[in-house]
Sequence to fold (909 residues):
Amino acid sequence: MKITQFQERLFEQGREYGYTDMEIYYSASRSVAVTVRGGEVDSYRVAETHGISFRGLIRGQMGYASTEQLETDSIAFLLEEAAGNAAVLDTNDDSDLFGGSDQYPQLQTYTAGLLDTPPDKLIDAAKKLEQLVLHADKRITMVRQSSASVREHEVLIANTRGLHCHQQDSIGSMSVYVLAGTESETVSGGWFDYDLSNFEAIDPQRIAERAAYEVVSKLGASSMPSGMMPVILREDAASSLLAAHASIFSAEQVEKGFSSLVGKLGQTIAGSNITLVDDPLMERVPGTTIFDAEGVATSRHVLIEQGKLNTFLHNRKTATKASTTTTGNAARGGYKGKLGVSYHNLHLEPGTRSLEQMIAGIEHGVLITELHGLHAGTNPTSGNFSLSCIGYLIEQGAIARPVNQITVSGNFNELLSDVVELGNDARFTGSCTSPSLHVRELSISGS
Amino acid sequence: MLQPIVVERILQAALETGGDFAEVFVEDRTDRDLGMIGGVLERALSGRDYGIGIRILKGVFSVYAYTSDLSEDNLLRTARKAAGALDGSKLDTVLNFEPLQVDNRHPVLQQPSAAQNARKLDIMRMAHEALKQGDPLIEQTSVGILSWQQKVLIANSEGLWAEDTRTYTRLRLSAVAVDGNQRQSGMRAPGALAGMEFIEGLDIGAEAAEAARIAATMVKAGYAPSGKLPVVIENGFGGVLFHEACGHGLEATAVGVNASVFAGKLGQQIASPVVTAIDDGTIPNAWGSLNIDDEGMKTQRNVLIENGILKGYLIDRVGSRRMNMAPTGSGRRQSYRFAPTSRMNNTFISEGDSTREQMIAATEYGIYARSLGGGSVNTATSDFNFAINEAYMIRNGKIAEPIKGATLIGKGIDTLQKIDMVGGNLDHGQGMCGSVSGSLPVNCGQPTLRVSEMTVGGRKGE
Fold:
């Protein structure tokens, strides 16, 4: 059944059931992905999925339910389950649906033809990437996988208050994962790149060169003595650390006491060189979006301005509780989740110097390129982290050798006040971005 | 679900271009999720996942297509789109489905339903009170009950027709203790392949007291030291050590393409002789158990390591083709959105003859890791890491002060050789394991054991 038809029937039957207001959040995605190994296509994936989340006001309570089956018998499932869920809720704080913003930003996020990139073109590109990386360095022993994919996604939010928001986005990407080594040693690594409108704009040569460097430069790594020392978190490692702690800026986490920033609004929580922005309207990056999961028009917000905590991220419910206005950061974990709060395109404002220049300023320290086990080794409630990592030893302003079997420990909140310099190398590859960060001192544990 | 005649048409369409094997995985799953924060029920969600994955193999080349539109037209179109990735001609295939007879080893007494909401709510309120009263330092609580039922149909061009229903129930308890500006959480999350009877059978008060005790203990803990130390790891979820250090490295996903440090080592001594490790998908009602795996094969008990010698791998259908070895009932996937790969079920180290007291007493200076968190591993290098949720120093053979903020790291191939004492108190803990075929319920288990040396990533120089 088409979504518009499903929506009409659902709202009609919902009214008969006793719902006074109703909303659907529909999301659909289509993708094609190929992986190549040893010059042969190893896997080929085609996906087409959709799902719908329903919420409705019944007897003054909002109930939630979702389904991936858009058939007639799903309507009864949604109405009954949402009513059952509404009946047990103790809260009554998201009882009004949003009728729509006066104006929505205009942004180009979708290229219609991207998904129609011929599969042969994806396969050829992945094969070419595999060959390029194999020939990039003799020490490369195996390309574990070389991949190419195109994907498009759409979201529709519509409700009985007149809201009707629709947005589509698309992305093409390529990645390669490589092993290198000798009899006694194996190392692994990879690289990826993307383009939002044209698959052919992705340059396999650049990915191959970078992937080869990433893996080969790890050869000969060993641990290093423990100690407190200056650390540079390379942009990708810094971005992953920021993402692991970014929930502390959610007003929902603050209100529930799970954020370490409780009571810190308006205070200086970071060094004066730290400015943290959520900018959903930045063009040509993956985190771009013109409305949030409640249908509120998005806008740019400065969360930390030169060290001072200006605002948390809000949806309409958290904003009401905190007597402020929504920042347009309502989010759902796909169509299944309850309405929560999240960032769209969170990033630290970059500095002016390159990673090389930052390294040159360090007598003895570590450049960290990968952090492992972030889902387990970080605690956003306390800010404490202790993480397995790899990178390079820095001696006298230059990379001396690769290091592995070490951990880095510290506290994210303390780290924000301890950043000596931010690099100019931020890469917008996801929804959370940091440039390289030179941190005055962190604890390294090794041999 | 789908009628045999429709499934047959899909499989025939999938094989039109020379595939030698085709399979459908149809899934109809209903989730119910209740969440309470600080005693207030503020999360009540129901969801239905519904879709089909169509897989075609030709040798080890695999094509996978999935869709949530189960109209016959769309299914045939999807099957043909997938078949379009191959350019051969159709092999003659006669399909004759033979329903697989499965004895249900995991009985469910109380099937999940929306009608259980009221009872769940009572239990959650009780759990909240018990968490709150567990310690004066507890300032926030979180309680959740998650249950889901997954109905699957797996049919393939070899004539397999297998249906199964999997019912999962899990309780999550978490307490946040605050002391000055320190905040720490403690949690418990028991789960089973069972219905509500699992939660009814739990001692909720004891589980809550344990979560509160961990939070209140850890909020007063000092930082862990750094460096290489002996570590005594408590039984139960401590088995995540083996799961990360070795388990993933024994999966065909890595071994079959020679991207595991354990590839080619069958029959070799890869662990200390006190180590015997097993992956068992048949344990009744255990969180990681299944009647049949997601390729329709009955699960089994697989001995991976016996007295330190590598005895076997975890092998799915594609892995079996790559490695020329029999599959082990280990093909799993989170949902129809994932092609199956080799995965763990309930993995554990079996019992030895030491005691916890002996291990602590034999350790002059080290760490006692009472409760572990999650971790990860790079199977190509066997570099692994996992977090400690609750730990103490061991000084002069005695458990001393609590420590926090430590990650344990090592190389699986080294660490397995350094397990020098194994206790007799096997227990299992529940976790969600993430890998290429998605996030899956698994048990990690072990008796208390000692590793003679691991790198402890703390913050304090000592």
